[in-house]
Amino acid sequence: MRHPVVLAVSLAGAMALSACEQKSADQTVERAFQDVNVIDESDLNDVMLTVADPNEAVTYFKRTAADNPDRIEVQRGLATSLVRAKRYSEAAPAYAKVLKLEGATNDDRVDYADALLRSGDWARAEQELDKVPPTFETFKRYRLEALIADSNKEWKKADSFYETAVGLTTRPSGVLNNWGYSKLTRGDFGDAERLFGDAIRQDPNLFTAKNNLILARGAQRNYALPVIPMDQIERAQLLHTLGLTAVKQGDVQTGKSLLRDAIDTHPQHFEAAVRSLRALENNANG
């Protein structure tokens, strides 16, 4: 008569064991899916920060950040995507939030300073950079330090920071152009010309440096186009800049001649140069 009891206990034990095994299996599968989701989400974050449309990335990270307010990589992604979208006034407070989270780094503070600078708050940007230890040496940190020193007209500090920044990157064309422009604003036209030339050698497609080089040469009354890579449209645009620079220097006839060259060189109708030349001729006739 005891057999049914033993059988019932055995069945109950087997069912319990089966339930435990099922629960364990479910947990294993759930963990596996969680791991996959983490990997997928990490990949998606990277995609959003690189190839996605910047504003789409902002929408994605805003939604994700609202659900995960304490996850620093998500909040950092939101701040970075706002910078990519050129929404700097929103990026600055987003980086400020990142800095309050566990795991914030000196890179985050430099990025915060960058966003502040881009949004026009140079004073706060300088304050944030002052909080970064001097042993933290990165290209971005020194580039920002150079720009701020420039704005304060601290020329020796600016030159030192620019020089350090150039040595910390394999793509120095942009910072060389900034350094050259700093020299141009100070009236150091020879140094400016040299730095713009260095920038162009590093990046032959950097038209801003080409145009700045023309400004530096024109300021020295050197009205010959330099031997640099340029297509026909760029040549016309540079002749236009050179012509206007000549006029500013008081060399009006030279300026007119350069403007005519610009109009003749451009493969299409060069409206800006035409207007400049017409204004000069009307002024002379008046």
TrEMBL record:
PROSITE patterns in the cross-refs: PROKAR_LIPOPROTEIN
Any single Pfam family the record assigns to this protein: TPR_19
Gene3D superfamilies named in the record: Tetratricopeptide repeat domain
Extent of the signal sequence: 1-19
Keywords from the named record: Repeat, Signal, TPR repeat
Family matches, as InterPro entries: CellSynth/LPSAsmb/PSIAsmb, TPR-like_helical_dom_sf, TPR_rpt
Matching PANTHER family: LIPOPOLYSACCHARIDE ASSEMBLY PROTEIN B, TPR REPEAT-CONTAINING PROTEIN PA4667
Protein name (Swiss-Prot/TrEMBL): Tetratricopeptide repeat protein
Organism: Tateyamaria armeniaca
